[in-house]
Amino acid sequence: MRKINVFDTTLRDGEQSAGVNLNFQEKLEIAKQLERLGVDIIEAGFPASSQGDFASVKAIAQTVKGSSITGLSRSLEREIETTWEALKESAEPRIHVFIATSPIHMEYKLRMTPDQVVENAVAAVKQAAAKFPQVQWSAEDASRSDLPFLARIIREVIDAGATVINLPDTVGYTTPYEIGQMFRYVSEHVPNIDKAILSTHNHDDLGMAVANSLAAIQNGAGQVECTVNGIGERAGNASLEEIAVALNIRQDHYQAKTNLTLKEIKRTSTLVSKLTGMVVPSNKAVVGANAFAHESGIHQDGVLKNKETYEIITPELVGVSSNRMVLGKHSGRHAFKDKLVELGFNGSDEQLQKTFVAFKDLADKKKDITEEDLFALMTEATVGSAVSHYELETLQVNYGTTNIPTATITMKLPNGETVQEAGTGSGSVEAIYNTLERVVDEPILLMDYRIQSTTAGRDSLAEVYVTVQYDGTESSGRGTAHDVLEASAKAYINAVNRTISRKLFNEQRTNPLKV
Ligand SMILES: [Zn+2]
């Protein structure tokens, strides 16, 4: 059985999804969960793109030791140097350096001849290999490159010290048959190919990212690049969970395995969905809410008699637990802490205390506390508190079918002062948002507003996701509360706080890259 390395790029390529802006704390939480999932390589960001990216890649490299950490870099001397500064403390420093190799990219984007591109790639790989034990080199837009040229440049960069060769389908254009041909061609025409691992990286513009990844694996790729829930620019990247489960369920066919702990898949998916605000469609393979729901009577009957009649994947395999009650009103601190640790909590005592208070409060209002509830509270306490320039203190809403909705809000300002404001609107949420806009004293444009429940049942926690335009940039925010209006207020304030944080820490990326 061949071992396939899983290279997760949720924090780099995935983070480039429109409307996604993860902060430092959120990236760290996701990286820790990816380590628990057993990902071999985590692409933590693009360190030379901004101070914020540099800081988060460095922190992940210092914290996560169970996975190899990498960062993207263009083939520029100063960028490779900056990437080394960010990654030198990681368990196995690894750089991901790239240059475009397709005729259209070389001519119009790089304005370089093929010879100049080879020269540039070799120089970059040599510089990187002098410091990094692992050097991944990517041929951007490989799937639209000329195959003999690809073979030539790959041979030269391997001689220069590259240990992984990635052949991305940057624009999501290739097909399973063609990508198979490309990997086979490279394996057969690059004489020193045994000195490097071949890697595949696919985009889903034609809905073939996962199929292309699997075809590349069948034709020689020993590393697969993907993102949790398939998030990423445009139509996204190949989805980690679909590739992992396909390799597992169809072991007979692919004869390949990964190091992933599959039962961590559902939790990883939920965490990434919550923190990015990108909802997982119910019909999504492996992690969608309906992925294991058998509706048809004939199917249900079959599954009751023998699961294997219609069920090829068990929910347990990927960590989908039936929504069972785990704690109740009278559960003590000790049982509570044990349960959180089981869910992957590794925060401070202060965060533990904060989550415990929120749990007791919820237990007063909701009969059964499930794992989903605890996970929502825990996420709120560990990453929600990282940004609090404005803080909601009290909220009161007056609504009736015959009167004008009015909101009264007390808020703590960034300078520590407390203010009270009141405002009206044509609905309760609008009244809240009009009032908050007055507190912040700057126009805020609401671009998107979504609400969902954490669990089933009318006593569920409410989760609100918003996208706003504030201070010249677009920012997303989320809020969790027992009441939908409070969750709505929190999400709005969270979006504003995140904009302020990004400006303060210069996390604004000047130069997003596509590979
Ligand atoms: Zn990509």
Automatic annotation (TrEMBL):
PANTHER family named in the record: 2-ISOPROPYLMALATE SYNTHASE 1, CHLOROPLASTIC-RELATED, HOMOCITRATE SYNTHASE-RELATED
Regulatory domain: region residues: 391-515
Protein purpose: Catalyzes the condensation of the acetyl group of acetyl-CoA with 3-methyl-2-oxobutanoate (2-ketoisovalerate) to form 3-carboxy-3-hydroxy-4-methylpentanoate (2-isopropylmalate).
Required cofactor(s): Mn(2+)
Start and end residues of each Pyruvate carboxyltransferase domain: 4-266
Matches recorded under CDD domains: DRE_TIM_IPMS (cd07940)
InterPro entries assigned: 2-IPM_HCS-like (IPR050073), 2-isopropylmalate_synth_dimer (IPR013709), AIPM/Hcit_synth_CS (IPR002034), Aldolase_TIM (IPR013785), LeuA/HCS_post-cat (IPR054691), LeuA_allosteric_dom_sf (IPR036230), LeuA_bact_synth (IPR005671), PYR_CT (IPR000891)
Reactions catalysed: 3-methyl-2-oxobutanoate + acetyl-CoA + H2O = (2S)-2-isopropylmalate + CoA + H(+)
EC number of this enzyme: 2.3.3.13
UniProt superkingdom: Bacteria
Assigned protein family: Belongs to the alpha-IPM synthase/homocitrate synthase family. LeuA type 1 subfamily.
Keywords, ordered alphabetically: Acyltransferase, Amino-acid biosynthesis, Branched-chain amino acid biosynthesis, Cytoplasm, Leucine biosynthesis, Manganese, Metal-binding, Transferase
Protein name: 2-isopropylmalate synthase
Annotated pathway: Amino-acid biosynthesis; L-leucine biosynthesis; L-leucine from 3-methyl-2-oxobutanoate: step 1/4
Segments crossing the lipid bilayer: none
NAD is among the record's keywords: no
PROSITE patterns, per database record: AIPM_HOMOCIT_SYNTH_1 (PS00815), AIPM_HOMOCIT_SYNTH_2 (PS00816), PYR_CT (PS50991)
Gene: leuA
Enzyme type, top EC level: transferase
Species, as recorded: Halalkalibacter alkalisediminis
Self-association and partners: Homodimer.
Gene Ontology terms, MF aspect: 2-isopropylmalate synthase activity
Residues making up the signal peptide according to the UniProt record: none
Ligand binding (Mn(2+)): 13, 201, 203, 237
